[in-house]
Structures are given as structure tokens and as C-alpha cells.
Amino acid sequence: LDAGQRYQEVPLELPGPVDIAFVSHTSGTTSSPKIVPYEQWRVAEAARNRVDAGGLSSSDRIMLLTPLFSLGAIRRSLLPPLLIGGAVVCPVTLDARVLVDMLAAFAPTQFVAAPATLMALLAEVEGRVERPQHSLRVIHASYSQLPADVHDRLQAAFRVPVMQSYGMTEAGSIAQTPLPPERVPSRSVGRPAFAEVAIADAGGQFLGADDRGEILVRGPEVFAGYENDVEANRSAFRDGWFRTGDLGRIDRDGFLYLEGRIKDVINRGGAKVSPREVEDVLALHPRVAEAAVFAIPHPTLGEDVAAAIVPRQPGTVAIGDLRRYLRGKLTAYKVPARIFAVATLPRSALGKIDRVALVRLANQTAGVHFEPPRDGEESAVAKIFAEVLEVAGVGRQDGFFDLGGDSLRGVRVLARVEETFGFSVMLDVLFDHPTVAGLAAEIRRLSRRTIDSTTLKGSP
């Protein structure tokens, strides 16, 4: 409007290839927020790539199950069908019951969804007496990797291939699994799709097949750089390659495997623990549906390992049994010092595990209710914990590692146990029974065994 409040005509200028199409907000490869500008030509390139890779035609109809504030939803679900005259179904809710009914009503041929949405759909379908009718020919899993059993159950429930893809806001689609009949190795996110991918060590040297390092990517879908952030761009790019911040490896057949985020690696007193490695072992336990591993503060080690698990059935996982299972498959320092069960894992709007929320949950579950020792063994163990760890007010549910213990102090605890109870206890016992109540119960059991053994030896 001019000074006289009259409308003025402004000439319409169509955007050119290098003009900015979208601006997205992301944490990038560090924890500080950054702005990702994405040009028109990169958006067009990404949409054409999805059309070619998915064999899309004007008869395809994609159901939009990811939020449009993410570039991934725009590049993968919204623009590709519109580019070739197809259609997009836009649900007003992500309620699994409604979405399953919409499969029959609107006949989408495919959709892209985050693991949380896919697991909700799977639970809904498996809970119905009759299989829902649908016209799907493929399901795409994105944003984070599906657990192997969920992938297999989805394929069985919907009777269509489930493709796993790996990408990020800054780099577009990096890899995806091929369609049958080609076999995809377990845990792989597929082969590089629309970009060059390399693995490099901390010094920037490229690594060979099956060597673990940082995933680097370059190609037409990779953005040009963060807006007004010289320092972030200096650290995010290396000789034209974008540093994803993800750890991974490429096998001899060209399949890419994710091994976690560099910033998520836990530094346990100098020993490095990859959460993904521990999560993969937990996922193999028959009573664990999901698991997330993360760092918690530790007064002497700096960081320690914690795990949140979702049991397949409530109340079916004994933490002590689970810890023994892990000790049989992992190096001792990789076994989580704290394991607790949750109904669901906290996730972001894009379905990624929210590890900050997990730390808050871990803090909430530690020492919420103080329970005093109930008998002589528990009182003795609580006193030993308090003296070795130099803390006060130790309750029966307090854990040795939660209170700041480590393996060196654990040796001191076991020496005190031997002085107090008259028999030795292995360090594994403390790892398997780290609470006052748990260790006291195991001491009672071992004490009975010692008495029985002595009685047998002394029998006539």
C-alpha cells in the first residue's frame, strides 16, 4: 500500500533455479540450531530422483504421513507425484485406526513414514481380525532405522515390500534398500542412491570396505551450506564432502550400515561405547521390543551407559536377567549401568529417539522413593556402599553405579563384602545385582550355598 492506502501493482518475478525454495531449521551435526536454505534446482532434482527410483507414474497416489515442516516430506512425498500428474492423500490425523481405514477408502499406492507411525500402523493391523484392504505396492521407512523384526512383521502384515531409506535435511536421500528380489543384508540401510558416499576416519582419510568411520556425502541434493554460519560450514564440509556426523561402514557389496551418531558416542572414562552396538544386542532379546542407549553423567567416569527398554509384554523383563544376557554378548564396560523399562520411547516429531528426554527419565527413575534396608544383609550392604562411595542415605533400591560407582570401587566393595560376610563374591555379581536389595539377596543365596557345602563336607 502507498501513502494513500491504494494498492500498487508489483511485477511478478518467477523464481530461478538458484533462488531459495525452502528454509529449514536443523541442529545439523552439532547441538546448536542452524538454518538450511535449499535452492529450487535441488528441490527439482530431488523430486525427479524419487520419481525415477520409485518408478512412479500418474496412476500413483502417495499418502502423506510425515510433517510438511521437514524437507524430507516435501522431497519424498509431496512433490514427486505432483511432478508427474499423480495424487497426494493428506490425512488430518495420524491416528492408526483412521489411517488403516483410509488405505481402503483412498487407495494410496505407497507412503513414507517414521518408525513410530509404522509401529502404530502395525499394531493396529495385527490387532484386527480381518486384514485391511489396500492398494499399496511399497512402504517406505525413513527418518530412522526400523528394528529388524518390525520390518519383517510390516512386510507380512501388509504383504508388500518395505524399503528402508537413509537421508538428512542437509543432504537429501543418501541411500535406500533395493526392491525384491535382491536380498538386503540385515541392518543395512541400502546402497548409495542419489549421492556419492565415503567413509573417513577422524583425520579425514578415506577408509576401506567394512572400516568404521564418519559418513561423508556429496551430490546434487546436498545443500550449499548453512545460512550466515561460517564456523559451522567450516566444520561441516571437508574438501567438498558434507560431514553427516553419522558413524557407519560400507561392505564389499556396497551396502551401507549405520553405527550411530558421533555426538552420541559415550565416553566412559576414556572407553568409547557406541549406543547403536548395545541397542542391536538388546533388540535380539526375545522379551525386548525396543531399546535406546544413551549417556548419563558419572562423577568419576564422566559418562556412563544407560538403557531404556520397551518390554514386549509389561512386567516380563527382569533387569538382572537382562544384564546377565548383555554381559554374555558385550565387553563389560559396554553393559549399561542403569537399565529401566518404559511404556514407549520418547521421540521427536520426526520419529527420532529423543535422548535428552531419556536422560530426564533416567534422572526421574533414580532415587525417587527412598526405601530403608529391610534386614541385616541389606543394612550391611547399604553401609558398604555408603562408605566406599562416600555418600549418605543409601536405600535398598539404590544402585551402586547410579551412586557413582565404577569397577575399581566395585573391587573395594567386594573386599568389604568378604570381610563382612566371610566369603568372596565375584565382580560379575555386583554388575548383575547392583542395587542394595539385589546384592543382599545374592549374598543370602551364596551364603546358603556356602553353609550347605560346609555341612556336606562335614557330614559323617
Polypeptide structure, described:
The protein is α/β, with parallel strands linked by helices and 460 residues long. The protein is built from 13 helices and 19 strands. Strands 3, 4, 5, 6, 7, 8, 9, 10, 11, 12, 13 and 14 form a twelve-stranded mixed beta sheet that branches. The C terminus is likely disordered.
Task: Please outline the helices and strands.
Elements: E1 20-26, E2 34-39, H1 40-54, E3 61-64, H2 71-83, E4 87-89, H3 96-106, E5 110-113, H4 115-126, E6 138-141, H5 148-158, E7 162-168, E8 172-176, E9 188-192, E10 196-200, E11 213-218, H6 230-236, E12 237-238, E13 241-250, E14 256-261, E15 266-268, E16 271-273, H7 275-283, E17 288-298, E18 302-311, H8 319-327, E19 338-341, H9 355-365, H10 376-389, H11 407-421, H12 427-432, H13 436-458
Parallel strand pairs: 3-4, 3-5, 5-6, 6-7, 18-19
Antiparallel strand pairs: 1-2, 7-8, 8-9, 9-14, 10-11, 11-13, 12-13, 13-14, 15-16, 17-18
Helix pairs in contact: 1-2, 3-4, 4-5, 10-11, 10-13
Low-confidence stretches: 453-460
Largest sheet: 12 strands, mixed
Report, as a whole number of angstroms, the end-to-end distance.
110 Å
- Helix share, percent: 25-40%
**Average pLDDT level:** 86
Number of helix segments? 13
Which features characterize this protein?
single chain, 3-stranded mixed beta sheet, 460 residues
Summarize the structure.
34% of the residues lie in helices and 23% in strands. The chain is of the alpha/beta class and 460 residues long.
